[in-house]
Amino acid sequence: xxxxxxxxxxxxxxxxxxxxxxxxxxxxxxxxxxxxxxxxxxxxxxxxxxxxxxxxxxxxxxxxxxxxxxxxxxxxxxxxxxxxxxxxxxxxxxxxxxxxxxxxxxxxxxxxxxxxxxxxxxxxxxxxxxxxxxxxxxxxxxxxxxxxxxxxxxxxxxxxxxxxxxxxxxxxxxxxxxxxxxxxxxxxxxx
Length: 191
Description:
8-stranded mixed sheet, alpha+beta
C-alpha cells in the first residue's frame, strides 16, 4: 500500500489520509464499495471487478481527472475523486470560474457506522482540495434525489446553484468557496 500523500487530524475521529488510487491493486476493494446498495448513486451496481479496474484505469489516464483512496486510522475507508469540471462531468453545463475543482466522494459500507464519520470524510476531502492554493471553489453535481449528500454539502459550506440535466441524471449543482468552507467548519477565514 502506498503511503498517504495528504493527512488530516480530525479532533474527534483521529487520523485521515489520502493516497493515489491503484486501479489494479484497489479494484477488488472498490468493487465491494461501488456495488453496495448504499452506493446506488455511484451508478456501478452491476459492475464486476474488471469493470471497476477499467473505470479507474480510465480515470488514472485522464489528464483532468484522478482518484484517491482515503484511509481512516490507516485502513481504507473512502474514495475521493478530483476533476476539472470544465473538462469532465460538467463540460458546457455550468458557468466555470477560475480555480474550480470538481469532487466526488464515497464512504465504504460498514456494519458499524461511526457518528460523524461521513462529515469528517467530506471535511477531509475539502481540506485536501483547498490545500492547493489554486483551488478557489469546489464544484459538485450529485443526483437531485441524494438528499443525504445535499445535507452534508450544506454542512460544509456548499451553496446550491440549481439543477443541471446530465445524460445519466439530473444533478444538483452546488459550489463551495474556501471562505464558506472555513466558516462552516468554524476555522479562521484568511484575511
